[in-house]
């Protein structure tokens, strides 16, 4: 998972992945079927482990304002936690990939996250849950990109606060 997170799907070869895992390339194919199969496993593991904060925040939040603020702050923490692998593997692991299947995999996971956020916002009785979920996803992608570009954690936190306030300012009950 580390190599994919560091360099993206296209930036890592099968031989290097096999070496990192401690197996030979034929064993990698036997275990995962393909490089894409290993990437899928890595991305799913990342989404459950490092990206799981999104579901956790939505599950335990008291109100939308607190949830949005906590979502952004936890994203800033998560995306800056590992200086070797900054950002979000789901957001950036297949960005600009030449493999349409790798791109589709991460797009599907981002779509599921967006759908879960939109459903949660709608369940909170908020107007424009879809556009709000889109804005949240765009802001999270921006935080991930900034972390990958080396923005310090304190700056990510400050930006997360500004973005959360902007979205919180747009919350209004559904009619």
Could you give a quick summary of the protein structure above?
The protein has about 180 residues and is an all-alpha fold.
Q: Topology of this protein?
A:
Blueprint (H helix, E strand, L loop, with lengths): L1 H6 L6 H8 L3 H8 L2 H15 L3 H8 L3 H17 L8 H4 L7 H24 L5 H20 L4 H16 L7
Give a structural overview:
This protein is an all-alpha fold and 175 residues long. The protein has ten helices and no strands. It has helices spanning 2-7, 14-21, 25-32, 35-49, 53-60, 64-80, 89-92, 100-123, 129-148, 153-168. It starts with a helix and ends in a 7-residue tail after the last helix. The model has no long low-confidence stretch (mean pLDDT 94).
Shape: elongated
Strand content: under 5%
Residues in helices, as a percent range: over 70%
> What's the order of the H and E elements?
HHHHHHHHHH
Provide the residue-averaged pLDDT.
94
**N-C termini distance:** 45 Å
Largest sheet entry: none
Radius of gyration: 17 Å
Number of helices: 10
Low-confidence runs (pLDDT<50, min 5 residues)?
Answer: none
Name the structural class. Answer: mainly alpha
**Could you tell me the number of beta strands?**
0
């Amino acid at each position: 998972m580390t190599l994919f997170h560091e360099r993206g799907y296209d930036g890592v070869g099968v031989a290097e992945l096999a070496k990192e895992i401690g197996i030979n390339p034929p064993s990698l194919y036997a275990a995962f079927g393909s490089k894409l199969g290993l990437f899928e496993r890595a991305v799913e593991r990342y989404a459950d482990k490092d990206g799981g904060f999104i579901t956790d925040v939505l599950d335990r939040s008291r109100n939308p304002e607190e949830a949005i603020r906590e979502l952004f702050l936890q994203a800033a923490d998560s995306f800056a936690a590992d200086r070797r692998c900054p950002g979000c593997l789901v957001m950036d692991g297949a960005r600009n990939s030449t493999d349409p299947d790798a791109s589709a995999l991460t797009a599907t996971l981002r779509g599921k996250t967006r759908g879960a956020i939109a459903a949660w916002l709608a369940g909170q009785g908020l107007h424009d849950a879809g556009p709000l979920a889109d804005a949240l996803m765009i802001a999270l992608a921006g935080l991930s990109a900034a972390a990958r570009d080396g923005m310090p954690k304190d700056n990510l936190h400050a930006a997360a606060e500004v973005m959360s306030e902007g979205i919180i300012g747009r919350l209004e009950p559904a009619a």
